[in-house]
Amino acid sequence: MKLYQYLGCPYSAYVREEFSKMGLIAGKDFELVEARRGTPGREEVVRLGGKNQVPFLVDGDTQMYESRDIVTYVRQKLAS
Ligand SMILES: N[C@@H](CCC(=O)N[C@@H](CS)C(=O)NCC(=O)O)C(=O)O
Question: How many whole angstroms separate alpha carbon 44 and alpha carbon 39?
Answer without folding.
Answer: 9
